[in-house]
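so my prof wants the structure for this chain in the tokens format not the other one, which i didnt know existed until like an hour ago. anyway here's the sequence
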Amino acid sequence: KAKHVLFCVVNTIEFIHISSCDSVKEMWNLLAVTYEGTNQVKESKISMLVHQYELFMKHNDESISDMFTHFTTIINSLKNLEKYYPNQELVRKILRCLPKS
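here's what i got, hopefully its the right format
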């Protein structure tokens, strides 16, 4: 039954990839690696995003709105990878990036 559900919800390309699997667990693991990557890939993505977060700053030609959008994109990407920062820290980070005048 679970195999049938997976076959019904995947697109044609995904179906081709998982149709040769012998078990639902094998199908699920293949889909998970395809879309989430391995733990090593996940850790690498987190490391890259943390680096972007740590070096984040407003550029001279960037509006406050664009800066905030860029910051939010980094934070949301980290949340999707289950890496969280306390709201207090995020607010301090944004405030430090704002122009002084």
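also thought this was worth mentioning. The mean pLDDT is 89.
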